[in-house]
Amino acid sequence: MRRPWPTSTAVAFPEEIVPEISWHLERFAEPGERGFVFVGPKGGRLRRSNFHKSVWTKARAAVGMPELHFHDLRHTGGTLSAASGATLKELMARLGHSSVRAAMIYQHATRDRDQAIATALGAALSAVMAAVASEEYWPLILPRAGASIG
Predict the structure, then answer these.
(1) What is the pTM assigned to this prediction?
(2) 50: helix, coil or strand?
């Protein structure tokens, strides 16, 4: 049976993006520990029917990537996680996949390895950030303080 509400899963993320996540949470997320991280322009819950028109199309235009699909972000995260050395089981755990269950039943993803994946992603991000020293590139990568998408 499919649940009418989304489930939540804790996933480690690179320490290097904490400032951007904090910035987003302070300005856009619902308050409180159980508040939604992403809400609509008027503060309501995002729904498939309003997400593309009210949020995603504007965000893609703001970063100059009108052809970007939302799933491309997930795919990039999975690809970078794999490139960091994550095992298939770790990727399945990180991305919430349940397939290949029979082959993976005796392997266990650990919290320590999840943090190691996040650390490796952070190192890769730091390398990109060091290579892109010009402030002009930041709007194409991450919104900075004071930036507005909509």
Answers:
(1) 0.58
(2) helix
